[in-house]
Amino acid sequence: MGKIVSFSNQKGGVGKTTTCVNMAAYIAAEGKKVLLVDMDPQGNATTGLGFSKSSLEQSIYSVLIDDEKALENIMPTEVENLDLLPSNIDLAGAEVELVYKKNRERVLKNALEEIRSRYDYILIDCPPSLGLLTINALACADSVIIPIQSEYYALEGLSQLMNSISLVKQHLNAGLEVDGVVLTMYDSRSLISKQIAEEIKKFFTKRLFEIVVPRNVRLVEASSYGKPIMMHDPKCTGARAYKALTLEYLARQSK
Ligand SMILES: Nc1ncnc2c1ncn2[C@@H]1O[C@H](COP(=O)(O)OP(=O)(O)OP(=O)(O)O)[C@@H](O)[C@H]1O
After folding, report:
1. What residue stretches are annotated with the AAA domain (predicted)?
2. How far is CA 93 from the centre of its chain?
């Protein structure tokens, strides 16, 4: 059964999509079969992996709201071993439409059940909210990776997110674990970046997987459209950071 990992943080623009897309591509490059589920109505991962979110017939919306099968909505991507369950524009309304569905917190979990054995990893890119789309992603996940920017208010946001994860664990998914934190857009010349990063590390009592991804211009060019950096500039600092992060993550999984 594939491991389901949700990339969550209700704060916008912290690097969820960048981290999810790049880890998906580098895990796939290691020969593992990967599915990326784009649960973000902004659809940057969908665009970055080569699809138009306005003209696609396949989408996670059809799975969540129209009860279509996940398998019928999955697309192969240009990256070998990486499939996509794409987002589309309608997904923006799904947060409200889900309220009226039976088992509304477990629609994604039920939909992924039949395809889970086809993949080694299923990575879910969450929207910047703690609404029903994120709750669905957390309710079906084995673990969460939290991309977080080392900036003012990062800790307040992290506390709220951890409370929500605890609630989901208590009521919907007892097995949910926090795998780790990825400190994104880290600026080693900024004292604040360093201080906040230290605080974030202290926040967790048990030792978590922590990786720092530096602020990187080449990564911005690729990640603004959700493109994997390995398809854009595989030698830049950002690419090396995400590759190292992925390999360390995979090594931890096999321990
Ligand atoms: N390491 C980095 N260095 C510099 N810029 C980065 C880095 N990682 C991501 N960015 C930029 O930060 C912005 C936000 O990144 P991203 O879209 O991955 O965040 P997000 O949390 O998924 O956003 P949203 O909440 O809107 O879904 C993008 O413009 C991206 O190009």
Report:
1. 3-177
2. 20
